[in-house]
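Researcher: Structure for this, please.
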Amino acid sequence: MADCDAVVIGAGPNGLVAANLLADHGWRVLVLEAQSEPGGAVRSGELVAPGFVADWGSSFYPLGFASPVLRALRLEEHGLAWVQPPLPLAHPSPSGCAFVDRTDLDATAASLDVFATGDGDTWRKLYRRWEKLGPTFLDMLLSPFPPVRRALRLGWVANVHVPWLTWFALSSLRRAMRGFDGEGGKLLLAGNTMHTDLAPDASSGALFGWLLASLAQDVGFPVPEGGAGRLTDAFVARLGSKGGEIRCDTTVTKIDVEKGHAVGVRTADGTQIAVRHGVLADTSAASLYQQLLDGEHLPWRVRRGLRRFRWDHATVKVDWALDGKVPWSEAPVGRAGTVHVGDSVADIETYSAQIQRGLVPERPFLIVGQMTTADPTRSPPGTEAMWAYTHVPQMVMGDAGDGITGLWDDADAQRMADRMEEQIERRAPGFRALVKARTVITPTHFETQDPNLVGGAINGGTAALRQQLFLRPVPGLRGGARTFVRGLYLASAAAHPGGGVHGACGANAAHLALRDAPD
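Model: Predicted structure, C-alpha cell format:
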C-alpha cells in the first residue's frame, strides 16, 4: 500500500507550489527537504546583526506578485503581506539617475529625458506595448510548453503587436538599446538584463530587460513584509491547511522505478516511501538525472545533452547592517528598493565580457537591495539592512583585478566584498563608514545551503536561447517537466520557464501529474 499519493523532493518555492496544487485536489502529499528548514533560496533571518533581517537569497518579487500561479494560491489568506518601496528601481550614473516610478509614468519618462530629450517618449511607447501585451504574454510565458491556447489568445488580443514582440524577443540587448539616444534608457534595459547571464549581444537579452523594467513600472518590485521567509511561511501554512506534510533534514538518495513507472523514493537513512501517483523533483536537472535516477531510464541523447548542460553565472552576495541610510549622490536612489550600480553601458559591457572570458570582473555590476527602504520592519529606525550581489564566472580562469583566485575561501570572499563596496562608494561617498557588520555568501556557500544552486547559479541554468522553451533543460526533454519515467516530473527552475520566484515550474509539473493520474 502506498504511503502517500505523491512525494515532492525539495521544499523550495516550486516544490511548495506543486505540493499545494496537488493537495488542493485531495492528494496526500509528502514534501521531503534535505535542509533543516523549508524555502530553498526564499529564507530570511538575522544573518548579519541582531535586529537586522536579511534575506538569504531572493528578495524582490515582481514576477511572483504578477504571477497568475501565485495569485491563484491566495497566500495573503495565510499570512503573506506585500509592501512596496517608494520607488521600485533606480540606476545612478555620473550623468544622472534613471529610475522607475510605479505610480507616475511621467516621472519615469522625465528621468530618461534628462539624458536625452525624447527618450521619455521612447519609454512610454515601450510601456504601452507592455500594457497591450503584458498580462497575456506573462500568462503564456509561465504556462506549460507549448502554450498553444495562450499563444492564440495573445495573437487575438494584440495581433498588431505580435510581429514586434517576436522580433523583440529574439533581439539582443545591444540592438534594443539603439532605441534610446541617451545613457539613461539604455541603462534601464541593460541593468535589468543583467539579472540574467545574457551578454549584451546575446539573443533574447532585450526581452528580459523589457520584461523586468515593465514589471517595475506596472506592479513594482514588492517584498514580503518581515522578510522573504514570510513567503515560504505562507506556502507552508497553506499546505498544512490542506493536510500536506513537510519533513526537513530528510535527504532523498534514490527514486525507485518499476516497469518504467516511479513508485517511490529512498532516503539517506534507508527509509523507503511508496507513492500511488508520482514523484515531483524540485531539484537541479543534474541531481535528478545523474544522481537520483539510474541512467538506464534515460535515452542516450538526453545523457549526451546533460553533458552539454550549461549553468548560469555564479553569484557572490554581500549583506550589510548599516548605521544610517546610504548617502547616494543622486537623491532618487535613496527612495529605491532595488538599485543597479554600473556607471555606464560601456562598464556593463566590460563586466559581461570579463565574465565570458572566465575573469572575475574588476568593476563588478551590482544589483543592490535597500531592504529597510522597501520594508521598514527589516531594521531599527534610521538604519538600513542592505545587500548586493554580482555575477562571477562558474569556472574562474583569472582575475581582471588583483588577488581573487576563484577558490572562494575567506580571503577571496573579503576581497570581493571590498571590491563591491568600492563600487557603491563611487556613487555614495561615505557608504563604507556606515558599515556596522557584513556577511559574504560565495558560490560555494550558496551550493552548500541549497544544492540546487550549483556553483552559485541562481536561475537553474543559463537563460540563453539554446536552453529555453522546448530546449530546457536539454533537447529531448520538451520543456523539462515530463521525464522519460511515468509518474516522475521535474518541478524546478531547470524546467521551462526557468528561474525566478513565480511558481510556474512547480505548477506545470503538478498539472501534468494530475492529468496523468488514473481517475
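Researcher: Any notable elements?
Model: DSSP finds 18 helices and 20 strands in the chain. The chain has three domains: 4-43+227-309+459-516, 82-218, 313-449.
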